[in-house]
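Quick log. Single chain, no ligands specified.
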Amino acid sequence: DGFNIIRFSSTNFCINSRRRARVPQLIKRHDLLLRVTAAGTVIPFLYARIDWLILTEFLLFISLMLQQNGDLAFQTCREIFRCYSKSTVIQNLFALTATITPSVRLQKFCVRSLQKRPNSPILHHMVGNFALIGGTYRLAIIHYMKLFRLTPDEPLVSLLLAISFVHVACQKYAYSRHQRVLHALAFLKKYRNLRGECTETYYNIGRLMHFLSLHYAAAYFYHKCLETESPIIDNNDIYGLKYQAAYNLALIYKASKNEKFARHIIRTYMTL
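-> predicted structure:
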């Protein structure tokens, strides 16, 4: 039909010296995948059905993410997001582009899309995160409060609101500073009730108390974090928070001139 079909295999085989069996080895041909999917988007008969075109653009987006090409990945995912904005998978992939895409373009697109979809949780979440990173904490609180009304049972939203109120309370020209701290503590309690008793909860609460210079409360929650077992079983302890909690706790004891107990914490929890 005038098309040259490119056929390639994702695996090749080698002989195992022990079992004499064929063991597949993955070939990471990301550049070839990018060329094939990019050529597929300009084939005329794919435009006859929207699902074929979206599938081709989705494969193109995956290849661009593997190549760490943030600009083209954002442009491709933007078109997919406009068609399938309610899909959880597409929302997660759209949020993933923020890790490799310049934030200004992505932020402007999220603000424009939020005007068309005012009840979209993912857009409120991303615009609030951009505002929090940029230092406009009051704007972040506005979007997080709208997100809190849409998803009141999400613990991350309560934690983000607590962080935003703490940052507002620590600003130089903040008014009603104590009231902002009380708001942060209220959302921290909400976060603790939703997330449950675990190392993540104790560490996050202790870190916020440490940020507010409430060292006695921070030390209490850091100790609770060290005494609680991590729910994720990991031999390398990649997802554990005990090292971070022990280090911060040692800093608190060192600042209070209790260097003996600080060395004890380091030797107990941070020595290999």
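The chain has a mean pLDDT of 81.
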